[in-house]
Design brief:
4 copies of one chain form a homotetramer. By secondary structure, chain A is α/β, with parallel strands linked by helices. Chain A has 3 domains: 110 residues, Butyryl-Coa Dehydrogenase, subunit A, domain 1; 107 residues, Butyryl-CoA Dehydrogenase, subunit A, domain 2 (Beta Barrel), CATH 2.40.110.10; 148 residues, Butyryl-CoA Dehydrogenase, subunit A, domain 3, CATH 1.20.140. In chain A, a hairpin with a 7-residue loop joins β4 and β5. In chain A, strands 1, 2, 3, 4, 5, 6 and 7 form a 7-stranded mixed sheet that branches. The longest helix of chain A is centred in the C-terminal third of the chain and has 30 residues. Chain A is 52% helix and 13% strand. The first copy, chain A, is built from 12 helices and 7 strands. Chains in contact: A-B, A-C, A-D, B-C, B-D, C-D. Chains B and D meet through α9 of B and α9 of D.
Chain lengths: 380, 380, 380, 380
């Protein structure tokens, strides 16, 4: 199935999952069948070996079908992409044991076969600031015991494993590590997700009280979490962006369909709204694709990071603005629940509010533009 | 119960009714108890004898408690207000029989005792353009038989009678009359309302196949509908406006509460968002109150009508803008269903889309400002 | 001459003075003839005894004729209005000697006869923050010697006297007093004003090295400057606001004239721009008039001050927004120098940038809305 | 001299030419020396053989130095670029005589040696709509006699020849041809340019009463004007766009410099303004470069034309928005004439108003997005 048909199928189910708030099982069946769970996995492990730019294209298309599904997929791609794209030398340099590479490959090969990974980073009251994580871990004889609670875990209850950020309970200084914790006993999903938009992400809470093996420690090294945030901000900030450009494209598509059906497409004010929306969406797509190319070609540079933040800011704001204006052009009949524009209006509002929020991006970009040295780490 | 306490009670239930989409029975029990069903009814018939300006104040306060409840009340106030405020001489001049006054007084006295009236004007595909109404009536021996279908009837299934616009099936020229049709057999509610915002208005469809007495004809004269639209645009356009200023005030109130709880109130970008929102809401309130005073002092004049359209435009746009910006200040935690800002974000979007839409108001006001003679009637 | 005709005369000359940057002598001849120099002066001293609300009306109308002239007049009205409106008891309470009242009356009576007063408060690098004034004074045998430099002195070279803020050179703590310094030797105008907009205000620099009599000390008391800023923020912040509403009204008027002349008034996008501009200007006028009524009825209260800041914010932003949009509707032919819209576009941009700037107002209003206690004094 | 240094030199003189309104002679000396007059001229004729994408890069950089200079250069590049890029086969197909190619090469070779060409298309009251051109031509024994008046001729009085659109006075149907008319007797410049912004373009009026040789007829074929507008909209619409992105970049650069000098760069609201401006400018640059690449790779296609209109819309709006916001961040001290931000604020406003205006672009793009077939020709 090509991406275009796949997006169509997602689009056809988006309203149903939005209304029920259920996890989009059928969408993930399709994603598995299309081989997308292994998108970021290297060829040698059975995957498609995609670059960040290729991922961005996929995320945009999925997002134009069903935003919530694309956001869950984005989390999976972030886990597999970060694992696949971190160079071996770098990991060795940071002290990873050789055993790490085998366990990493197992994780990636499982994804290529259909395993779904989720991210459990945020906690209530601290958002996604890694430096303040309260979930903790301690060494046991054979591995680690992890205890705590997470929130906003997209795909909770449907993932095969969760990337969990936790702090070393024995360290005086904050030392935050990542673990890939398999679903199962000790990992309890607590229904909490009932949201304005992006309702089908199943971003429930997770309660953790679980023992994991030694090789669940990602990278095989403790304290790697903040490091990763600095090296690969794209996976924490920019990978959403493509999804929201897809959402904005869906607004245009459904707006055009509705306006033609109702015979409103010849009204000059309607036409002007659509024309401006078309330009904004085209511009946002270019910015997101540019950021993706930067990440692929020159990961981690200051210039790349600026593009990443621009992409997040512009994609989130554009989706919200375009949905606002096109809904106004479409009129009250498009506000009925079940109408695609009604759902998209709610979905589109969420981008600017997801971390890093548009206001945070603007602040950071302003500091850069003004020649100041934004202290990135402080933001995590 | 004073208006402040009443609004508080409505506010406390708004989330519940938003989630269920049920009609806010308890709110209307409170409104009845507070004597508000007779707000527009003259003192001599047991009512409060309010002016349009006094109504505006009530609508704003109710709207700041629960927008949907205030919209349903607005429809009731429009029916009773239009009946109460149309001068006797004018009605006589248009040919009303003397019997009209007794039947009008019965209708108003019933309201003062708690009867609820609703408006059944819109039809699918034509919106609220009276000139294109398809619901029709024909004379019977003792009155009229009305046949047709209506949509967006706020309070459907809970009103004691419906103000129905229908065209004379025997006339070649369109002749549209108003009837006050009692609830009962032949007036069938068809559940259809499931909307982005203002979910508790129960604005369902109505199927009509019903016979009514002679005195159900409003004014006792056929063909009065378009006339009324011209003489009293305030009840068709501006009475919403106060509700949306109330909604915008609620956004500020809940925004402040949320931001202080979360400790976000000292962030400069948050403060600037709130400061601008505060100014916008204060300005919108002044415009709506000014329009209301104009209606009270100089009903029907061109200057009054301009203020009425400005009020509709500014109230609708302000509510939507302020909800958009304050939600962004509040962040993702305020997008959980059940959070007042989540509901208000959806409710606030509806004002600009209700007729006359903001784009229509802007067009009309532009024509006036440019010295053209806007053909009001054509818009109905 | 009534205000309407007067505004017309100002409007007819506005382009000439904008191009040359000269002080509008003819306008002030007309203002003198119309008795407006004594607008704020009590009846017993030969003036019109206007309230702040009446002043606001005059300022708006003058501003709709010629913004720059209205700004210079605003400075004169601020000096005479503050002197006339400060209650005698309050001045006595702060320690004013009885001799003060005679000297104050002389100053006001001179205004009623045509004297023009200007304000010399700002200094380069500190703006209008009184607490950081560097211009200083020292006691001499018969009065004071004042030394320093001022900037942005509207009407410089054309005023009969200047209200100068200066700090006591002998005090350790900052003690800032006001002096009314007559034009003449020791008060040297240095041409410096050549600005984007409001070009005819002659807001040049002033170099001061001058001795003044004892009774030049305003209030007869030292250290009164900060006090006044707190008691009467309206004269420092809100009195501009009315001028910018006038400017916005002029944009509408000249926009309509231009669009009709060019036959562009029937274009739907043009009409929508004008309709939205009309609403914004109507709203801004209401806010400014409301603030003025508050000042008249309840000067100095927190509620009044909030309205004053809202008025400043909304008037400045509205003028700029409306000029931006109407110029776009008017097209390139309206950008020729000498075209009223070209001038108004530049004039209108200045309001939000004059102290307190829109961003400062938004910050202060946000703090109030969020329940914080804005420290007003710190801003001066 | 590299482009960076060249832009710096232009930037250094921009204020001087803005104040005087004189044609920037020194800038064109520099452009000649840098070989830019032959930028679009093929290598075989002594030029640089640039593509449209390469031109776009040059225009953006020149625009970031001095907008007015870049606009004049843009006209020259449009003439030489359209001549150089129209394929020989196409011209032959339209009936061009073989003699055309020699005369075209002479024109291009002269540009490579420093000749400057200007465009005389607009006429008072009809703008740039070719179909309504009133300037006419008639055949003489040896060529043509051209009579009429043109307006907005950038570079008037400084160009070596003017591309003039004129209609065949003998034809019943409008038949509009282009002539390249040498400066000299019969071509009279009438000073008329005194504008809000872009003051140094010398866009004066031109009065024509002149005989030209046979080979002044561009393409050697009559009636080619509308054709060219359809085949190459980029030169009529999009080549401005790059200039305004340059202007927006200059706003950022000078804004940053001013804000750091004044110590305002740490204020959160200032930082947020700069951050949003940075994103907008980056997005506009991508859109303009994308449109340029489309023109280079796939000239004349519907998809290319959409990008061309998006580029015009976004570049014009972005320049104006960014200048508006950054001036507000910079404050009143940046509104002094001679300050780069004061000039840029005026320059930046002109882009959206130049044809095709932003409103026209939005309308056309809306029609495309809504699946209608925009009748391009009708717009000329």
């Amino acid at each position: 199935m090509d991406l275009h048909s796949l997006a169509d199928r997602l689009s056809g189910r988006a309203s149903k999952y939005d209304v029920s708030g259920d996890f989009p099982e059928e969408d993930f069946d399709d994603l598995r069948e299309a081989g997308l769970m292994g998108l970021m996995v290297p060829h040698r492990l059975g995957g498609a070996g995609a670059t960040f730019a290729e991922y961005t294209d996929v995320a945009m298309r999925l997002g134009s079908g069903a935003g919530a599904t694309a956001l869950v997929f984005n989390m999976h791609a972030s886990v597999t992409g970060a694992l696949a794209h971190t160079p071996d030398e770098l990991v060795r340099q940071f002290g990873a044991p050789e055993s790490f590479f085998a366990s990493r490959d197992r994780v990636l090969a499982a994804a290529a076969k259909g395993a779904l990974y989720a991210v459990a980073m945020s906690e209530r009251g601290i958002g996604s600031r890694l430096s303040q994580v309260r979930t903790s871990y301690e060494r046991t004889g054979s591995g680690f015991r992890i205890t705590g609670a997470k929130t906003f875990v997209s795909g909770a209850g449907h993932a095969d494993a969760y990337l969990v950020a936790a702090r070393d309970s024995s360290a005086a200084e904050p030392r935050v590590s990542y673990f890939l914790v398999p679903a199962g006993p000790g990992v309890e999903v607590q229904p909490a997700w009932d949201s304005l938009g992006m309702r089908a992400t199943a971003s429930h809470d997770l309660r953790l009280d679980v023992e994991v093996d030694e090789d669940a420690l990602v990278g095989g090294i403790e304290g790697a979490a903040l490091l990763l945030a600095q090296v690969m901000p794209q996976w924490l900030v920019a990978s959403y962006a493509a999804v929201y450009v897809g959402v904005a494209q869906a607004v245009l598509r459904h707006g055009v369909e509705h306006l033609r059906e109702r015979g409103l497409h010849t009204l000059p004010l309607v036409r002007a709204r659509l024309g401006r929306a078309d330009s904004q969406v085209a511009a946002a797509e270019l910015v997101v694709r540019r950021a993706a190319r930067q990440v692929t070609d020159d990961p981690g540079s200051q210039e790349t990071n600026r593009w990443v933040w621009r992409a997040k800011l512009i994609a989130g704001d554009t989706a919200a603005d375009v949905a606002f204006s096109v809904l106004e052009a479409a009129g009250a009949s498009a506000t009925r629940r079940g109408h695609p524009l009604e759902r998209l209006y709610r979905d589109a509002r969420c981008g600017a509010l997801q971390p890093a929020t548009s206001d945070v991006c603007a602040d950071w970009l302003g500091a850069c533009a003004l020649g100041d040295d934004p202290d990135e780490v402080a933001r995590w």
